[in-house]
Structures are given as structure tokens and as C-alpha cells.
User: Fold these one by one.
Assistant:
Number 1:
Amino acid sequence: MGPFVSAIRAVIFDMDGTLYDQRKLRRKISWEMLKFLLANPTGLIALKILRDFRKAREKNASLIDGNIEERQFEWGARASKVSVEKVRKVVQNWMFTRPLCHLDAYCYPGVRELFSYLKEKSIPVGIFSDYPAQDKLQALNLEVNVMVSATDVEVDRLKPDPKGLFVAASKLNTPVKECLFIGDRDDKDGECARRAGMPYLILNRKRRNWSPNSFKTFTPLESSAIYAGDKINMKPQFLIEGGVKAPFFLTGFTEIIEWFEKSRK
């Protein structure tokens, strides 16, 4: 395990659901939307637009149409039967602007400590997110060396397409196999890393703050180079590619620091 971690020269993070608790944030925004709807019943269309926008993005994730930044709003407009501009306005307000003031409260424990640790060790940090991340990073008070979004012109591909990881690694001036990608969804982040051939770590959203004693066994997946914990849920607690078996104590960001420290000695 030591040689693997020592070979990591850069760390790339997913944003939503990885650095902050997206579920709690969505509940908070849903409550704000409910209050808004009670005062403005006609605003129900905004709820439908958001739902259709997210579903359309998931449905079309594998399409390579080009100009994803614009196409995503067209998909949403077609699903909701409203104008593209209406979708853009609702999404900007409820998904990108209103949540910013709440992000800091839902930042996962240990995130800032891990970022500080990586900076101290001169390990550059990147972000690869399906959505623009600059405003979110500012709200979280986090600094990174490289920021890449799936909607950037040079990427123009949604996860699990690996192009964004290739772009991020290139901007970090680090070989793909010497980067570690940390995310929260195996179907998106894990698959993206597998296609790129990049080592990766998947943090389980439901069990991230559980006691280390909850995870004592690991089950090999498709190959001997990939391992997963959390047999009970049949969902991977972490996945590491590159012949490394993730230790059971890796349930959060503080534990990742411990892992790096123990493995780099």
C-alpha cells in the first residue's frame, strides 16, 4: 500500500456530494422552495423544471452532441415544454445561486484539513465536476490548482466520459496513473476513473461517518486490482484501482490524511 500512495503526485476531487453533503443541502433548498411555492403557487413549474433538467442530464450523459453547456438547457426545455431561457433562469437560481450561502454549513468534516495537508505536502489539487465549481469553491473557502467542468469547451463531455479527467491531469502536468480521483458515485466517478485508467477512491455517502468497526471485510470485484467494502449494502464503500486494498478505516477525509501519512512513511 505504501508504494502506491507514494506514487500519487496529484489529487482530483469531484465536487457535489463529495466535498459537501448534497442530500442535506437539497433538503434545505427544498424547504426554501416550499416556502416560495406557498407564497407563489404558480412557481410549481420551477419544481418540474429542476426535476426534468436533472433527469434529462442523466438520460443524455452518454451523448456526444457537442456544446453540452447549451444542450443541457435544451434537453430540459424539451422535457418541461418551456423555453430554454426559462430553464436557464430557474436552474441558475435554484441550483447555482441560492445554495451558495448554505454550502459552508454542509461541508464534510475533514475536507479543509485534507486540502491543507495536500498543500503542505506540495501535492497539487484539482476539481473535476459535472457542473461549474468556481463559486462553490469560494463558498467553501477552498483553493485548488486546477478546476475543470464537464461543460468546459475543452471537455464538453458529461461523466462517466473520462475526458475531464484527462484534461485535469494534463493541466496538473501529472500522468493519469499518478493522480488519485476522489468521488462519491461509483456509476459516475468510479466509472469515469476506470475508463481513464486513473486510481480512484469512492466515498459512500450514507456511511461516511460510521464507526470504523462497521467495515472489517473487503470483497474483490471484477479484477484482483479492485476491492470494495460494505458487503451489507452491496454497494462499494471505496474502490481503489492499482493493486491496492483500501483499509477499513477510510470512511472520511480525516482518515484519508491518516492513510496518506501511514503509507508515505
Number 2:
Amino acid sequence: MNDFDPEPQSNWTNILKALADETRLQIVHQLLKKELSVQDLSNLLSIKMYNMSRHLKVLEASGLVHKRKDGVHRFYNITDSFKSKLSNDNQVLDLGCCKFIFDTSMYQNNF
């Protein structure tokens, strides 16, 4: 399991690359609400399971999400250390170098 650790410098690059994709931002936004399976995320965001798995792999490698196995199912959630960088309402992610604001109106059709 990778934990969200902003040091060394190369980790910041991986984190920012992971969050640079709009689909992955939508995935993170959903996972901020609750733990979800690959299939749940795929259905919620209308993304093929193969593509969803690829996005989740990038997020997991960057230390932003954690995978929990339950039989044949894989459930994903946001790591605790990543959650510590979020505002109380889970709408602003402050990485120190930059802030991500999750604008729910932007995703109103999906969320």
C-alpha cells in the first residue's frame, strides 16, 4: 500500500500527474463520499471497467487511493494521509504548492 507522502520531490510530480486528468478528479470526488468498487465507479461515471481500472492504478501508484480486496471485488477509498490535505467539506485539496477545488456544479450530471 502506498501512503500519501509529499516527499520527495518526485512524489509531487506523480501526484500532480494523477490529478491532472479530469476523469481521475471525478473518481477522487466520488471516493471522497464513500468507498466504492471498480464496478460502482464504472457505472457512476459511465466509464468502461478496463479504463476505470487503469485510472485507479494511476491513483493507487501515486498514493492517493487504497485498494481493499473482498473476494473477487476490489474496493477503493481515499488514503487517510490524503484526506488530511482536504478541507472539512472535502471540496478543497490543499497540497501546499497548489489547491484543487472540487466544483460540484461542474459534475452535476455525474454526481
Number 3:
Amino acid sequence: MLGATSSVSAIAGAAGSATTSSASAASVFSAGGAASASAAPFADLITDAVGDVSRLEDQAGAAVSGLMTGTGVDVHQAMIATEKADMAFELALAVRNKAVQAYQSLMGMQF
């Protein structure tokens, strides 16, 4: 999972920053569907999401280390932390793939 952090950081660097959870993304829009006046820029959302992925990966690493050293971390806690980190990375990767796909689609258009 250490390589995943550098991959996520590369995603953030390429995009200019990271994504966020659906709850945070939903808060960007007002009830009418238009962007609210205090909406965060997309780059900030991306940066926050990459930070969240990195934080979850660090927590998973600490949980696995605690499990291996026997410092009171339960197997279930380690597995849950690892799966959370894996799911967050998979989401970041899916967002990156969609962004690349959209970019390629735009580049293929003729104006």
C-alpha cells in the first residue's frame, strides 16, 4: 500500500489537487442544484480527498503494525482499516480514470 500513497499524490499533482466523499460533494450544491456561493473549488476538493486517502492508508499501516507487534490491535480492526484504505484508493483511482477519459474525449472532439 506504500506505492498507493505515491500514486494518489501523483493523481493530485496531475489534477492540481483531490476529491471528497459523496456527503462533502453533496454539500457543494444547494437544494436548487446550482453551485452555492461558498462552494469550494474543485482543486480543493481533490486535495482534501487525496489527504483523506493518505490518512486512511497511514491508519491501516499503523493498525497492521500494531497487529504484528501485538500492541492490542484486533485482527478485525486491522482488516477494517485496511479495507477502508483500499476502498478509498479504489475510489480515487476511479475518479482519476474518469477524468482522463473525459480529457481524452474532449481532445478527440473537433470544433
